[in-house]
Each structure stands twice: as structure tokens, then as C-alpha cells.
Amino acid sequence: MELKDKIVLITGSTDGVGRVVAERLGASGAHILVHGRDATRGKATVAAVEAAGGEAELFVADLSSLAEVRRLAEAVRAKSSRLDILINNAGIGTADQSARRQVSADGYELRFAVNYLAGFLLTSELLPLLKASAPARIVNVASAGQQAIDFSDVMLTRDYSGVRAYCQSKLAQILFTIDLAEQLKGTGVTVNSLHPASYMNTTMVRQAGVTPWSSVETGADAILNLATSPALEGRSGLYFDGLRESRADAQAYDEKARQQLRELSLDLVESLTSKEQHS
Fold first, then answer.
1. Domain boundaries, the chain
2. What secondary structure, in 3-state letters, does 182-243 show?
3. CATH code for the structural domain at 7-273
4. 108, 116, 166, 239: which is the annotated catalytic residue?
5. Does residue 239 carry a catalytic annotation?
6. Residue 210 — pLDDT band, cuts 50, 70, 90?
7. What pTM was computed for the model?
8. What percent of the chain has pLDDT over 70?
């Protein structure tokens, strides 16, 4: 893909693999919309992209709040008339897995909210911009760590663990990818998901107490493959393990489960909208 003057939004791009992807795409001529929670780290990332010869600007938002997700989408739409690539990379790992269950600003289980629901809402809000920029691509950075969603207890009020929460949220991303690919047929917008690499040398992995054994550069290669490879032009609804097309957990290919997740996600987002309107 020719990247000169392409607009790319990468969530969670102030650290780890997201930052490497931002620097590489910037150096290739893309205009990078850097996203993070911390303005200081964000400004450092913008400077790094510019030092590599690219152009970048910073958007600060906490994705544990769906209101901030909406504000992020509004800010992107206000700043840019197009969006060629959206990379949903931001996430929380399995650290504090033995700790008590955590909730988001909206009262939703935290990892489901940040790793999945924020990306669901951000993508939905930015779809008109992506469609107007077609051909465009969406990349959802998921994981090989996957656990089937228990639709009777999606918020994990019973038998909670950080690992279970993380694995459920990552599989939710993949169900969303396949479901969205069906909806986007004929629009020129493709969406794919991937496990970039196992236990990369990132803050998330180190906080989980795991010794890293993959580099962020390896993970960046895999993300960039989905974002830019000519071989993936027009291909959608796929799951990759690194650079190889692979198969996710069986639930990802269950049409009923995907419909349940879609309806639940819309309900969660719409109920929040209703609360905001009446507050």
C-alpha cells in the first residue's frame, strides 16, 4: 500500500508495539493520529514519529470511559476529512489477575470495556469516515489468549479472574471482526484481527510478571502486514497468528454468538447514551 499522505489512527500508540507501528508508518509517509491516556508520553511519541521523518498529532483519551471514546471520535472527525487505516491496539493485560474484579467508568467489567467495547464504539463512530476514504482498513489487535464468552455473565460477576477477563475480551474483538466484515461487504473497507506475537517486551507483559520472549518489532511486523500488505487487499474477516492466517476459538465462527455480542454491545452503548442525555 502506498502510505504517503494516508491518515492512520492507532489507539494505544504511546508505548510498546503501538508506538513502533506509529514510528514505522510515519517514516513511510503516513500522517499518524497518535492516541494515548498520558499527554507527556503522547508528545514524546509525536516527537519520535517526526524524528523518523513522519507527521503526527496527539489525541488524549481514556478508553475506560465510553464518553471519552465518543469525544475521541469527534476530535478525529473534526481534524481530518479522511481515515485510511484504523488500528485498535489499546488494551489492558492480565496484571493483578488475583485482584478483585474491576469496573470501567461506566460500570462495565474493565477489560471487556477497554479491550473490546471501546474499539467497538470507536470503530462504529468512525465508519462513515472510513467508508468515505475507501479503500480503507481496520486492524483489531487481539490475542491467541481467548476464552468463549459466557453470555449469562459477560461482566464476570462470578468466578472472576484477570486472565479470564482478558481472554474473553480478546475473543470478543475477533467475533466483532468477523461480524463487521459481513456488514462491510461492498464498501471497500476491510477488517481483520490478529495475535501479533507472544509475550512481547511490553509494559503490559512485564506488569503481568511474565518474562518477555518476543520483540515489539516482531509484533509490529504482524500488525503492519494487516494494515498495509497488498496481499490483503479486499480480504476481510480474517484472524492471523503473527504473519500467518489462522483459526480463532470456535465461538468466533458461531453466527448466533456474534449476533448476541452485537446486540449486547449496542445495548450497552445505547443505554449509556440514554443516561448521558438524561444527566
1. 7-273
2. HHCCCCCEEEEEEECCCCECCHHHHHCCCCCCECHHHHHHHHHHHHHCHHHCCCCCCEEECC
3. 3.40.50.720
4. 166
5. no
6. low
7. 0.94
8. 90
